[in-house]
Write a structure and sequence with these properties.
Elements (H helix, E strand, L loop, with lengths): L23 H5 L18 H36 L18 H11 L5 H10 L1
Helix pairs in contact: 2-4, 3-4
Length: 127
């Protein structure tokens, strides 16, 4: 075991010099990193590859955003379609033969069977 003297603080070396720092802030300063070895060459990124990566990344980002918006829209429309209607009691409605989906939705909304005809039509098209 080495004999250490307690009246003298230990020396702090800052690399190869073996000198003590003049102040605490000097002791906290980072040292300069080693130089890059001369035999290793760093290749520059190709501008073409970089541009292609940016375009593909943008396409994927737009695709993900569109899928999230479409999924949330389908979820919202399904929620609006499946919730109970504004009617208090059951009711019979006569639909004329040959009426289209928009005409049927307008009639159901007018009679108070559904609250939103566009949610009805969109869910009909989805299914």
């Amino acid at each position: 075991m080495m004999d250490q003297r307690r009246d003298v603080p230990p020396t702090m070396s800052n690399g190869t010099t073996g000198t003590r720092p003049r102040s605490p802030s000097e002791a906290l300063e980072p040292q300069r990193g080693p130089q890059r070895p001369r035999h290793i060459k760093v290749k520059k990124e190709s501008r073409v590859v970089s541009a292609i990566v940016k375009v593909v990344s943008g396409i994927f980002t737009v695709g993900v955003v569109i899928m999230v918006l479409a999924g949330s829209s389908v979820f919202l429309l399904n929620h609006l379609y499946e919730q109970p209607g504004p009617l208090e009691a059951s009711r019979n409605i006569v639909i004329q033969k040959g009426d289209g989906r928009i005409a049927i939705a307008e009639q159901l909304e007018r009679e108070g069977v559904i609250s939103n005809r566009w949610a009805f039509v969109a869910n009909h098209l989805w299914r």
